Amino acid sequence: MTPDELDRYAAAVIDTCLHIKKGDTVAIHGEPGSRPYMHALVEAAYASGARFVDVLYVDPVVRRARITGAKDVTTLKWSPRWHLTRMKDLVAADASIISIAGEENPGLMKGIDPKRAMLEMTARMPGREAYLKAVAAGTARFCVVAYPAPGWAKQVYPKLSVERAQRALAKDLLSFCRIGADDAPGAWGKHVETLVKRAALVNKRNFVSIEFKAPGTDLKVGLAPKTRFCAAEMKTPNGRRWCANLPTEEVFASPDYRYAEGHFACTRPLSLDGQMFDGIKAEFAGGQLQRIQAKTAKQREYLAAYFARDKGAGRLGEVALVDRASRIGQSNRVYHTTLLDENAVAHVAFGSAYSSTRFPDAKITGDRGLNVSKIHVDVMIGCDDLDVTGVTSKGERVPVITDGGWVLK
Question: Is 0.85 topped by the overall pTM?
């Protein structure tokens, strides 16, 4: 990215998504290959009045060395207490937490022992357990964004040189965020308005369940009473606004984890733990994952272990509606990172749910159907043939997405 583009891209996160103001704390996490963007984010944060910006570089090569080289496999379960303390302190300080996607070395984890990999939990963000808990509770302001690191860019554009691949990917990212060369001022704000209006339309219907149907997919999920679909603009309990993903194209909610029936076939590969997983198919009954398939036996074994790592890992924590108007989807390109691929098509997620997807109601007690897990993994099931139907308490079936396009008015 050019210096001007880096500045605009950083300002989009700091000012438009997180609304940083005087006295705020900001935490930035990314691989060494994202260093130019991390610097731009730091400068933008201080220019907006931040009190302190904490930058943490996370190197996957170091993580791989631990997974493959630790002599005593039981030590892989251990993580420093200070990782957890740091994340808890950030949440308590109402810090804005930024995570940068874009791997320097795609496929770095390929071939490692899945049983050892399951034990090592630091991933891209140390203190991830406390982070996911705060995200699920709606008490964390965070933003996930991407930077065209060389290895990732070459993965997306394999026929181009590294430099040209980075440039092509940079243009894509700027366009997806509505700050590209062809975007008019205020384009991002108008896009957010569209998504927020869509969420309001779904909420108005008070659906009790929602169905996804496409080639290879026939899945029905239940929605708990007072379920709220959200989009783009969020608010913390203290009223601070923020946007979780840049870019974003989704309208999402957490389903009732106890009610998921049927099966789905993924329409895009999944990037997870430095590996790519293809041909994913899954079956659900009684809200619980019953069976999962992948292109190879090793991939299936890895995913089966991953989605069994805790009680909630094999249940659904999110359903997200994305139609074919998505700029990311219109590119007809696989981006090999969840941030972009999940915003290309409709998707569901294994693992932790979001409490913000429930309207407050003192009469409703208990877990309200919100799944609890140490993971949150999105898998893409949307396509141009997807139909999404909402079902009301009276049994009325209301089309939301038909043949991949938004139809709910």
Answer: yes
